[in-house]
Amino acid sequence: MTPRMFSFVGGNTGRWRIVRNLSVSGMPLGEAARLDILPNTEIKPQLAMGWALRGLTSNERYVTREEKNHLLAVQPDLGRSEASCAALIPIRKNAAWWAMTQDERRSIFEERSHHNRIGMQYLPAIARRLHHCRDLSGNEPFDFLTWFEFAPEHEPDFDRLLAALRATEEWSYVDREIEIRLILD
Ligand code: HEM
């Protein structure tokens, strides 16, 4: 069965080398040299060298059937051999976001911010996986762990995508965001 739980462990070991660790908003995350992604595990923080963040893949909340079909047709898998660059972007949204109803959030996410419409322009160059942390027991520091993989020549595209999303109304509800860039070596 495909695992749903993933731990992202920052420390001295791991397949990915961390080349940037930037606090875009809110409290920074500690420095670490490398990142490991461990499926199906719940690393105890005291066992990790630096930090450990965990999240679960889940069902979609906001996409329509049409959008989902389009995504399924175009989105690439993780782990492509040419995709030696990655980004881990942990995100927390504020209380005002979570106080809204599902239809109010969808309206901001897509009708007003065009999150999926913007993101689709960067597929299939960028592969992605969204992890949810909010409903895990244990007072998680973020609501989402977002993970992206792409080839080095698509890094400028990824930078443009980040700038476009951060300028949206949806992002006015983000109160903590860390941008971690990585390369495979
Ligand atoms: C959620 C598409 C890039 C952060 C989503 C969802 C879609 C999507 C369809 C909604 C999933 C659902 O229905 O529950 C894309 C596409 C991208 C992209 C196609 C192109 C690569 C990004 C980037 C970031 C990001 C670069 C971070 C900087 C998020 C977050 C959520 C999300 C935090 C969860 C929103 C929430 O549930 O409140 N994305 N996205 N996405 N995406 Fe993206």
Automatic annotation (TrEMBL):
Asked if Lipoprotein is a keyword of the record, the answer is no
Q: Keywords in UniProt for this one?
A: Heme, Iron, Metal-binding
**Domain of life of the organism in this record?**
Bacteria
One Pfam family, short name? Chlor_dismutase
InterPro entries referenced in this protein's UniProt entry, alphabetically: ChdC/CLD, Dimeric_a/b-barrel
SUPFAM superfamilies xrefs: Dimeric alpha+beta barrel
Which GO-annotated molecular functions does the record name?
heme binding; metal ion binding; oxidoreductase activity
The protein's name in its UniProt record: Chlorite dismutase
- What is the species listed in this Swiss-Prot or TrEMBL entry? Undibacterium terreum
